[in-house]
Amino acid sequence: MYRYNEIKKTHLEISSLCQASCPMCARNYHGGLPNPLLPEKNLTLEFFKNIHPPEFLSRLESMSFCGNYGDPIMNNDLLAMVQYVKQHNTTLHMDIHTNASARTTTWWKDLAQSLPANHILHFGIDGLEDTHHLYRIGTDFNKIIKNAQAFINAGGKARWNFITFKHNEHQLEEARLLSKELGFESFHEKQTARFIGSEVFHAIDKKNKVTHTLLPPTERKINFIDRKTVETYKDAIKSCTISCEVEDTKSVFIDAQGHLWPCCFVAAVPYHYTTPDRLAWEFVQDSKTSLMSKIEAFGGIAGLNLNTYSMQEIVDSEVWQTMWDNSFEDKSLPICARVCGKFPNTPVSQCRDQFLELDQF
How far apart are CA 33 and CA 43, in angstroms? Predict the structure, then answer.
């Protein structure tokens, strides 16, 4: 693995809070009751500065505010964080991913003016007014459009990311045209790989009742994980070749609890808690067991805590340097195989394949 002085990118989950209840997000159960294993927390400005001292920040090439479970705009320190970055690195590329259904239009104007010149704001807008809420439960389409317009009018650079389902696929072209009209710089269609082993995904409310059903789009542009692949995943992993993306990009991930990980996919595993599908649940448990056994050498997850240890202490440690490489070689982390593995006999798309046509305007 790379050393601390080779890191080129930090990926941050500055908040595990979110006002949305997307059914396929693991921060809740199918859009209903919240994940009991997930603490809701924001990273502080002080913490952010401590892990990005000026000399470290000045040599970074990029920074991403995204994460696994929360929305970065829920953190009240976001504006101050990006202003701090801009102060110490004017050439850094920054991207922020959000559902954008919070804050005032004034706040969005301030964000646009606070960002480094080289930035892109990813707006997750999955449909138009009559369909968007079916996946982005708890969000307001009209508020999102107003916020996006305020951001763009103030000089912000924006991309519309559209997850295609059966219920919104007929609106893809209309949304593309609207994004261009509003001043978005680009439009990106996405198909989710979260239909794992089934083409039906039920949305459930807080009373544990099914409210509606999500179905994949008619036109499949990625290879969804079929039932046979789920049932034989242990054998499939043995034959895969793992090419770690963050090892190539020299990136690290910091979760909302302040723990350091190689990537967001590995970081998500400790907080996964349930799934109605037995085989998918088995995969989650295998991933969690294998990961936690790996980090025992750090004294458990506490050994990855950036409130206790510096990033350099963790990354340059012998344990960190050998643990992840060994995992790729012996394929002992199922999540690494799932995300960055290539399977010679099973044509399954990788997570990075979900982003499809990108239209630049």
Answer: 24
Contact 163, 191 (CB under 8 A): yes
The CATH number for 222's domain is: 3.20.20.70
11 phi, psi to nearest 5 deg? -115, 125
pLDDT band of 332, cuts 50, 70, 90: confident
The strand pair at 201-204 and 186-190 is best described as unpaired
CA proximity to 78, closest of 148, 143, 18, 13: 13
Residue range(s) defining the domain that contains residue 317 = 4-360
- With a pLDDT cut of 70, the percent of the chain lying above it is 91
For the chain, how many structural domains are there in total? 1
**Residue 9 β-bridge partners:** 62, 251
pLDDT of residue 157: 98
Alpha-carbon Rg for the chain in angstroms: 20
Contact 323, 222 (CB under 8 A): no
Which has the closest alpha carbon to 60: 4, 117, 120? Answer: 4
pTM listed for this prediction: 0.92
Residues 270-309 pLDDT 10s: 888 766 555 566 777 777 888 888 888 888 889 999 999 9
Tens of pLDDT, residues 204-251:
999 989 999 999 999 888 766 666 766 777 777 777 888 888 888 999
Q: Scanning the structure block, which residue is given the tokens 């978005």?
A: 184
Calpha distance 191→234 (Å, rounded): 25
pLDDT at 99: 97
- CB contact set of 1 (below 8 Å; sequence gap of 6+): 247, 262, 315, 320, 321, 324, 325
CA quadruple 358, 12, 297, 37: dihedral sign: negative
Report strand pairing: 201-204 vs 93-98: unpaired
In one letter, which amino acid is 234?
A: K
Question: Could you tell me where the DSSP H helices lie in 188-345?
Answer: 227-231, 233-239, 245-249, 264-268, 278-294, 311-315, 318-330, 334-340
Do you know the residue count of the chain?
361
